[in-house]
Design a protein that fits this description.
The structure is a single chain. By secondary structure, the chain is mostly helical. The chain has one domain. It is built from 2 helices and no strands. Helix 1 packs antiparallel against helix 2. The longest helix is centred in the middle third of the chain and has 21 residues, at 36-56.
């Protein structure tokens, strides 16, 4: 979930900055259909959603799962 959040932050912030130089990401070109103000609200919403996803995501979610079985005992049949 953290990696999705990072992508939301990048897309929202990038779209916010690109909007002011009259450019836009193709994926987010629809946000200005309702006007510039609503478009900026949607961009800030993307950034906020990304921050929440990064904050609530487990830092070890992408790490491999380690066994909790003690190594000094043989495995049970």
């Amino acid at each position: 979930m953290r990696s999705w959040g990072i992508w939301f932050i990048i897309m929202g912030a990038g779209s916010f900055l690109l909007h002011y130089i009259n450019m836009e990401f193709i994926l987010l070109s629809w946000v200005d259909l309702w006007g510039a103000t609503i478009g900026n609200v949607i961009r800030v919403g993307f950034i906020a959603l990304g921050i929440v996803m990064v904050a609530l995501g487990r830092p070890d979610a992408d790490a491999p799962v380690q066994s909790t079985r003690p190594t000094d005992q043989p495995p049970r049949p």
